[in-house]
Structures are given as C-alpha cells and as structure tokens.
Amino acid sequence: MDKPKVVLGVSGGIAAYKACELLRRLTESGHDVRVVPTESSLHFVGAATWSALSGHPVSTEVWKDVHEVPHVRIGQGADLVVVAPATADMLAKAAHGLADDLLTNTLLTARCPVVLAPAMHTEMWEHPATQENVATLRRRGTVVIEPAVGRLTGVDTGKGRLPDPGEIFEVCRRVLARGPVEPDLAGRHVVISAGGTREPLDPVRYLGNRSSGKQGYALARTAVARGARVTLVEANTGLPDPAGADVLHAGTAVQLREAVLKAAADADVVVMAAAVADFRPAEYATGKIKKKDGQEPAPITLVRNPDILAEVAGERARPEQIVVGFAAETDNVLANGREKLRRKGCDLLVVNEVGERRTFGSEENEAVVLAADGGETQVPYGPKEALADTVWDLVSSRLG
Ligand SMILES: Cc1cc2nc3c(=O)[nH]c(=O)nc-3n(C[C@H](O)[C@H](O)[C@H](O)COP(=O)(O)O)c2cc1C
C-alpha cells in the first residue's frame, strides 16, 4: 500500500524547530512527508534540514519546477496538510484565501483534511483579527488546534505556545484515521468535564473518588480531531493537557460547577464525564484534625453538592445545546442508568459498570449509551477513544 501523503507546512514562528520532531514522528510512522516552508520560516530552520529529513526537494515558491505545477499538485495529492507552527500571518492568509507562495497555494488546492497548529505571542493570538480568522477557518472545516499555555519567546509566558510535537502528531494520526471526511464538529464549541472532585475535610485530607479522567481526556482529544473548539474542565487528574484543548482546572464540585457553567454559556455540547462528589463535608477544619487519646473520632457530617448535570441539562444556556452525562454504576447498571437519564434530563447518558478493577484508571471501557429519544447503543470493550468517538457520532447526528 502507498504511504499516506502528508504535507507539512512550516511558517515563520520561533517554534519552527519543533516541526523537525513532528516531521520525524510522521516519517517514522510510515508517512510520506513533503515539507513546504514559507520564506520567513527559513530564517529559523533551513531548507537543507527539511530536505534531508523528508527525502524530498523543498521549495517556498511557485516558480520552481513549473513543469510539474507544484502549486496545484502538492495540495491535490495530499491525504493531510498540517501547518505547524501556523503564524498569525498564515492564519490570515488561509482565512482570506491568499495564495502568494507555495504553502498558501497548497492550502487552497488541498481537498483533504487540514490541521493548523497556531503559535504566537498571546497578544497576537487574542487579537480580534486572529480570533475571527480562526473562527472562519473552523467554520469551513479546518482543524485549528488551540495553542498551549507556557513559556513563549524570551522571558514571557502565556497562551500561544506550540503544543508538544508528539501531541500534534496524535491529532494528525486521528484526523488521518478518520479519512477524507469533513470534521463533523467543525465550528462547534464543546465543553467536557473530566476527573474526580476532591472535597476537603482539613488542609491535608479530602473525600475523593477513583476517577482518573482518562475517558474525559479521550473525549477531548477525539473532539479536537473532529474539528471542535474544546474546553476541558479537569479535576485532579494530573494528566498532561491534550493538544488543542483549552484546559481549566477545578478541585471541588463547587469549583467545577462554576467553571462548567461559565464555559457552557456559548457551548453547543456539554459532556459531564467528571465524577462529581454528591456530598461534601459540612465543616472544613482550618487546622489538621488530630486524634485525641481515649476519644472516638468525631463523625463527619455531609451536605449535598450541587447537581451540575441536572442544572446544565435543566437550564440550557442555549436551547439547542446537547447535554451528555455519564453514570458509573456498580449494580442494576441499566435500570439505574435509565432512571438517571430521566431524572437528570440530559440527551444522552453513557452508562458503565464500575468497580475497583473496572473502568477507573484503565485504558479501556465498555458502555451503553442511552438516549432520551429511546435509543440504546452498545459500545463493546475497547479503547476509551473508541467510546468517545461513538459519543461524538451520536452527538453529531443530533446537532442541527
Ligand atoms: C524572532 C521572531 C519570532 C517570531 N515568532 C513568531 C511567532 O511565533 N508567531 C507568529 O505568528 N509570528 C512570529 N514572528 C513574525 C513572523 O515571522 C512574520 O509575521 C512573518 O511575516 C510570517 O511570515 P509567514 O507567515 O509567511 O511565515 C516572528 C518574527 C521574528 C523576527
């Protein structure tokens, strides 16, 4: 079989050197990669590097090898175009259809999926011009992955950093695996909660649960590959941020509620995959609770936490918003699931059986997705990303 053909566009950002690692990952995993740098990017990484690492000639302009019409052929023949880093300038050109060099011509002729990984200073990223260009590109079906937060050029830090090349590679792998289809969540904002809340008793102790957050992260990664703008609200997972998602951190149920409701205000889809504690200690001891000789421990009084899923589903920020819940059950799994779906008022409920060695922390999952319209989809035991993709298939068919 022919190797999948990938065009790696590199534009003139300080992070261009990271594209060498992305190129390596792509070639070593069996892709035929053609690098198309911009003229500016050659200030950062030279053409010789791209040519030697890719095994292909490298050009920035349309006037070389004209008999082969490279300005058309390279894009037409690609299975995937990924631009990393994508400068503010490149986003503007792509959004407006400019074609003044080989890479911008390639973006116009490609009919395959396109992934752009922007990287720039926070001010450039947040500028309304850039944000509008990104929104335009997403609406048209381009997968634009959110930049990471961290150290930028020089001493400053903020949002605008190119995600880790390994993470960009994973996005490319998932997009390629989906084949030449339109990203069905393009232009959609999805909010996903993941992990487990911790309800503090004193400065060193908490009531928590066994949720690892892996299912929520799988949902976030697959949603990015399907073109969504993703806000991931995580609680106590300790997992590395998935490339392309905006990650917010919460500790307790009350904090998670606040973050989810805020993010949900303009969301098309809210998926509550986090395990939110139903109760929290009524009292928080500001000093560590000590054991006292000859005394029984004081009982812990609990109070109810807010029911975030019921609140999001009951008071939808937008009438057409789709709300997905998760139910972890240890017994009477389906009957409890159906009851919970009705009680919470969500559109879909992913029901899985949990136990000490099942689901929590594992890489695999098995579930039934119940729908408010009566549908029932069995998802066999397999990777959490496969379950995530089934959830997105069901969501996508319900989005207007
Ligand atoms: C040292 C240096 C670092 C730069 N880093 C970035 C960057 O990370 N992101 C960005 O959008 N522009 C960056 N620029 C500005 C771009 O290089 C400039 O907008 C250029 O016109 C982009 O051209 P291109 O999009 O054709 O590659 C940088 C410029 C310099 C001199």
From TrEMBL:
Pathway: Cofactor biosynthesis; coenzyme A biosynthesis; CoA from (R)-pantothenate: step 2/5; Cofactor biosynthesis; coenzyme A biosynthesis; CoA from (R)-pantothenate: step 3/5. Residues 1-189 are annotated as: Phosphopantothenoylcysteine decarboxylase. Residues 190-400 are annotated as: Phosphopantothenate--cysteine ligase. Binds 1 FMN per subunit. Keywords: Decarboxylase, Flavoprotein, FMN, Ligase, Lyase, Magnesium, Metal-binding, Multifunctional enzyme. Pfam families: DFP (PF04127), Flavoprotein (PF02441). Residues 185-396 form the DNA/pantothenate metabolism flavoprotein C-terminal domain. Its EC number is 4.1.1.36, 6.3.2.5. CTP binds at D278, K288, P306, D307, I308, L309, F326, K340, K344. It catalyses: N-[(R)-4-phosphopantothenoyl]-L-cysteine + H(+) = (R)-4'-phosphopantetheine + CO2; (R)-4'-phosphopantothenate + L-cysteine + CTP = N-[(R)-4-phosphopantothenoyl]-L-cysteine + CMP + diphosphate + H(+). Its cofactor is FMN; Mg(2+). It comes from the Bacteria. Residues 5-172 form the Flavoprotein domain. In the N-terminal section; belongs to the HFCD (homo-oligomeric flavin containing Cys decarboxylase) superfamily. Catalyzes two steps in the biosynthesis of coenzyme A. In the first step cysteine is conjugated to 4'-phosphopantothenate to form 4-phosphopantothenoylcysteine, in the latter compound is decarboxylated to form 4'-phosphopantotheine. This is Coenzyme A biosynthesis bifunctional protein CoaBC. It comes from Streptomyces gelaticus.
